[in-house]
Input
Amino acid sequence: MSRAPARLRILHTEASLGWGGQEIRVLTEARGVGRLGHDVLLAAPPESRIYAEAARFEVETLALPIGRKRPRGLWALRRELVERRFDVVNTHSSTDAWLTALACTTLGGAPSIVRTRHISAAIPANGATRWLYAHATNRVVTTGERLRQQVMRETGIDGARVVSIPTGIDLVRFQPGERGPVRAALGLPGNVPLIGIVATLRSWKGHRHLLEALAAMTRKDAVLVIVGDGPQRAALEALAAVPGLAGRVVFAGNQADVAPWMQAFDVFCLPSYANEGVPQSLMQAMACGLAVVTTPVGSIEEIVTDGDTGVLVPPEDPVRLGKAIEKLLADPELRATLGRRAAEVARERFGEERMVEGMVAVFREAVLARG
Output
């Protein structure tokens, strides 16, 4: 019976030029697997944010022109696969998944392909995509069980080859803190309710609905702190400048360490309306003991139970969102109860170790299945 090598040679590919939970998971996972003694390399476009950030995560990088589906990127990737002889390639976005699959079909003794599906966007319903998932790819990893069911339903892949491995977070960094000192260190007001969101400024994260909810709330002393940056920033800043919101919204931009910001908030909100898996920021907020308000989108319901570990409201409903926030701000005991329960669930389920160990097991399965 064949066995996978004790020390795996793993290539991660990521075509994305953006920065958010997906890219952070790729680097966190790669670092964790490397610390277990495996050889891990990340291939990414040299102009991408993940390429620039990899050193901070102790991940070795390889600059490849894989940001677009072009022959140049295909042949560059194929050359590296021939020269380096990886055991596994873990793909993360559509472009690099296609380039990897096409490169491997032209090689003898090609590495196994593991495709990680991070978001719940619809998968194209065509024969080429079904080939990519059901034949070219050896294993598919999703960040939540609902996403796993979606992949099986939309691609026809055998369920035995699809596994859900939620993203893990650093439970040493993300834990409850002393709100007063943290606010002082960050320059945030110490005597007003702070509502927080940590997310890339993309439309489907629901920042606009959160601003609309804040404007409609009867309580006018609450301040919204937006941590993150992205393509929607200018539009959101314009919305925040209207009468009733001016002076009540802080745009903090990207932060290398978001843990102190989480610890400064009274309530955390993530009103996404599309594309979510299991959002890291939501897990981080729960680990920090925050009462969270979010939506039943993607696999969020797998970690947030309404009335137990947080509050769920319908997506794209600023009125219900605002009422849920106001209820929590008016009831410190409820906030504390939800926060304690959220932190308990985080400690039980959200550790990085579970993610890393799960991924290594999948890599080994993929190598053995290749034969």
The chain has a mean pLDDT of 95. The first helix runs from residue 21 to 35. The radius of gyration is 21 Å. The first strand starts at residue 9 and ends at 13.
